[in-house]
Design a protein that fits this description.
Layout lengths: L1 E2 L2 E3 L2 E3 L4 E5 L6 E6 L3 H20 L2 H17 L1 H12 L3 H21 L7 E2 L6 E9 L2 E5 L7 H12 L3 E5 L5 H13 L7 E4 L3 H9 L6 E5 L2 H14 L2 E5 L4 E5 L5 H13 L9 E7 L3 H13 L19 H16 L3 E4 L18 E4 L6 H4 L6 E7 L2 H9 L3 E2 L1 E5 L3 H10 L4 E4 L15 E2 L12 H5 E9 L1
Parallel strand pairs: 1-5, 8-9, 8-11, 9-10, 11-12, 13-14, 13-19, 14-17, 16-17, 19-20
Antiparallel strand pairs: 2-3, 4-5, 6-7, 7-22, 15-16, 18-21
């Protein structure tokens, strides 16, 4: 049993109110997390504000040394951190270990950023004038992170925020606050000066508005649902501060008439079913050319039927539980809507029969046939191991179906035609486009973000993160 604490101004603090964390593996209570309020937010923001001048005055390379130390500590404790996160949100252990190592590499990537140029020399019309740009940190920032990547997503916000000179108040999703606490302990051990990183736990509906509206907070980076993301954007806009919102997707994979079907099936399954479909870039819609639809469908069903659903610590498990019993119920509601609206469940659509899994939050991998683009399961983000198959008349029809969504995060096409590939890249209304690769994931140094309702108009990861976590100063010196 883990009793988590907040971390404010260099100290782990006791809290009077707690919420139990129930494991999706078996429904057992595995720990409790603080229910913070206005007082904790005020203390955390005050600490971040006080720490900002000295932290931002450090040389970027000196800030990077702290990130390097944090990376080493997390790598040393990767197994322990992965086990806690696995028990808390159900991701298969091998995947969770991979996520932890991604976080380690993110820290190391940004540690080196401290040695890179952060501006440009600009020619001036006056020969005696030297003109250039430089980047300066925005100030204390609020980071609001989701439960589905409890290590990687916090670190891909924390690392750039810190290397560019900002201080932080981090609120993890309540559902992954045990993982957040364990990660925070390792960050604290890395020796960051007090107040540079502050961690608070509690209900997002209560703490989110308090954070965004705190006077000292100068920017907020949020990953979560579109409803909450839009609220964050409205509140931040009223205050005139920077905001960054990543709000999910309804990601589609197009199977062209010339696709390698065996390869496409394997990649479709990986994109849709790993992490039980709980990735914002997971494959949710599969749009198949009519000429290969039946053959692809049969190959897909046969392979999905063979997937191992089981406990996440079992190396043979491909699909573990979803993150919570509440999330399982939400997915089952979507499945019921799919059948009610006329789609057909080809496989799955229910909990597994295995008695040993009966107390956990399990959903069998599910494939829908006969899906029309207007159906709920073709429009709404399900966030579970569910594929909606849609039949396209031809390539142009497939593109039209793909773009018929309020989301625009990630999309992929499988084809042997360069012409189709480049046309797809041009016309797909998404922020991340893949050819002959799954929709899920992105390399840690590549810009991450979407179009339309998936994201606000900035990008995370890589050097693109600098634009959000800094302001640009244009400098002109005449001698």
């Amino acid at each position: 049993m883990i009793t988590a604490k907040n971390y404010i101004d260099g100290n782990f603090e006791e809290t009077r109110e707690f919420t139990n964390i129930v494991s999706p593996l078996d429904g057992e209570v595995i720990g409790n997390v603080p229910q913070s309020g206005e007082a904790e937010i005020e203390s955390a923001v005050t600490a971040a504000e006080a720490a900002f001048p000295s932290w931002s005055d450090l040389a970027p390379a000196a800030r990077g040394a702290y990130l390097q130390k944090a990376a080493s500590l997390i790598e040393q404790h990767a197994e322990q951190l992965a086990l806690i996160a696995m028990k808390e949100m159900g991701k298969p252990l091998a995947e969770m270990k991979g996520e932890v190592m991604r976080g380690v590499n993110i820290l190391r990537y940004y540690a080196v950023e401290g040695w890179h140029a952060n501006g440009d020399v600009i020619p001036a019309s006056d020969a005696k004038t030297f003109q250039y740009t430089t980047k300066v940190p925005v100030g204390p920032v609020a980071l609001i992170t989701p439960w589905n990547f409890p290590v990687a997503i916090p670190l891909w916000k924390i690392a750039p925020a810190l290397i560019y000179g900002n201080t932080i108040v981090w609120k993890a999703a309540e559902q992954s606050s045990l993982s957040g606490y364990e990660l925070m302990k390792l960050l604290a051990e890395a020796g960051f000066p007090k107040g540079v990183i502050n961690y608070v736990s509690g209900r997002g509906s209560k703490l989110g508005p308090l954070l965004v509206e705190a006077a000292a907070i100068q920017a907020v980076s949020f990953t979560g649902s579109d409803v909450v993301g839009r609220d964050v954007a409205v509140r931040a806009t009223k205050r005139g501060i920077k905001f960054q919102t990543e709000m999910g997707g309804k990601n589609a994979l197009i199977v062209a008439d010339d696709a390698d079907l065996d390869l496409t099936v394997d990649v479709t399954i990986s994109g849709a079913m790993r992490s039980a479909g709980q990735k914002c870039t997971a494959t949710s819609r599969v749009i198949v050319d009519a000429t290969v639809y039946e053959e692809f469908k049969q190959k897909l069903v046969d392979k999905v039927q063979a997937l191992r659903v089981g406990q996440p610590h079992d190396p043979a498990t491909y699909v573990g539980p979803v993150s919570s019993h509440r999330q399982r119920d939400s997915i089952m509601d979507f499945i019921q809507k799919g059948t009610a609206e006329g789609a057909t469940v080809l496989i799955g659509g229910r909990a597994p029969d295995d008695e040993t899994l009966s107390k956990g939050a399990y959903v069998l991998p599910t494939i829908f046939d006969g899906v029309h683009r207007t159906m709920t399961i073709a429009q709404e983000e399900i966030f579970g191991p569910v594929i909606a198959l849609l039949k396209a008349d031809d390539f142009n029809d497939a593109i039209d179906i793909l773009n018929d969504s309020r989301y625009g995060l990630s999309a992929s096409i499988f084809t042997k035609s360069l012409q189709k590939a480049f046309e797809f890249v041009k016309r797909a209304e998404v922020g991340m486009v893949r050819v002959n690769a799954e929709t899920a994931g992105v390399e840690l140094h590549a810009p991450f973000g979407g179009m339309k309702g998936s994201s606000s108009h900035t990008r995370e990861q890589g050097r693109a993160a600098m634009e959000f976590y800094t302001h640009t100063k244009t400098v002109s010196i005449t001698t």
